[in-house]
Specification:
Layout (H helix, E strand, L loop, with lengths): L10 E3 L4 E3 L3 E3 L4 E5 L7 H14 L9 E4 L3 H11 L3 E5 L7 E2 L12 E7 L8 H11 E10 L17 H8 L12 H7 L2 E6 L7 H6 L9 E6 L2
Length: 230
C-alpha cells in the first residue's frame, strides 16, 4: 500500500483552469485561501470572469471592443484572446497599459466602447461620480460595464477629503491610496450617474459546492453589472 495519501485538490481556478490543494493568503490584513498560486487571481477576479463568460456566451463578439481600466495581468491574455486588436488597456500611471487615461476626463467620443471592465479603481478617485459619468458617456447604448469596488461598510459610503495622507488613509480606509469606504449606497451612486445596475451574487448562478471549489468567498463581493439608462 502507498503510505502517502494523494493530496486532495479542493480548489479550482476558472481563469487559469488549474487545481490546487488550497489558495494562498493575500492582503494588507491577509485573507486565507484567497490567491490562486498559478495565475494570481483573487476571489473577485474569479467571480468576474464567470460573469463575463456568461454575458458573452453565444454572442458574436468578433467586432466588439473592450476597454480595460487599470488592467490586471491575469486578464490581459484572456481578453486579448477574446477581443484581439479590439482590446484596449488604459491606466493613468501604468506604463504597460496601451494608453494613458484619466477616467474623469476620457479623451474618446461618446459611445466608443462595447464593454468596459473597471475593478477596484473608483475608490482611488476623488471625483468618482465624474468618472462614473465619463465611463457611461463612452459606452455604446447596447453595451455593458462591470464597475467593481470594495464595499467596506454596511452603512452609507464614508469619505472625508481632509483624510489625505497615506497613514491616515490606511487608518480610516484600510489602504494607503483609498479616498473612501464604499457602502450600501454604491448602487445608488452609479444610478445617479446614468447607469442601470444589476447586482449579481455568486449564489445567483453557482451552487454552494462550486462557490467553495473556486474559493469565491464573501471577499469576492458582488458584481455590479451596468448598462446605460434607456
Amino acid at each position: 500500500k502507498n503510505k502517502f495519501k494523494e493530496k486532495i485538490m479542493s480548489r479550482y481556478c476558472p481563469i487559469c483552469e488549474t487545481n490546487h490543494e488550497k489558495f494562498n493568503s493575500f492582503g494588507y490584513n491577509p485573507r486565507e485561501d484567497a490567491l490562486c498560486r498559478n495565475c494570481g487571481s483573487l476571489e473577485r477576479h474569479r467571480l468576474s470572469w464567470l460573469v463575463i463568460k456568461d454575458k458573452i456566451k453565444n454572442k458574436d463578439i468578433a467586432n466588439k471592443n473592450l476597454l480595460h481600466i487599470a488592467p490586471e495581468k491575469i486578464f490581459i491574455e484572456k481578453f486579448t484572446n477574446l477581443f484581439n486588436e479590439n482590446y484596449l488597456t488604459a491606466d493613468l500611471y501604468d506604463k504597460n497599459a496601451k494608453i494613458k487615461m484619466d477616467i474623469t476626463n476620457i479623451e474618446y467620443p461618446e459611445e466608443s466602447f462595447d464593454y468596459i471592465y473597471c475593478s477596484h479603481v473608483l475608490e482611488h478617485i476623488q471625483d468618482d461620480k465624474k468618472a462614473m459619468r465619463e465611463l457611461n458617456r463612452v459606452l455604446k447604448k447596447d453595451g455593458w460595464a462591470i464597475l467593481l469596488v470594495p464595499i467596506m461598510t454596511k452603512g452609507p459610503t464614508e469619505e472625508d477629503h481632509s483624510i489625505n495622507t497615506p497613514a491616515e488613509r490606511m487608518k480610516h480606509y484600510g489602504h494607503p491610496d483609498h479616498v473612501r469606504n464604499y457602502g450600501c449606497d454604491y448602487k445608488k451612486r452609479l444610478e445617479e450617474s446614468g447607469w442601470e445596475v444589476e447586482v449579481i451574487y455568486a449564489e445567483d448562478f453557482l451552487t454552494t459546492k462550486e462557490i467553495e471549489l473556486m474559493g469565491i468567498t464573501k471577499a469576492a463581493g458582488e458584481i455590479y453589472f451596468c448598462t446605460k439608462k434607456r
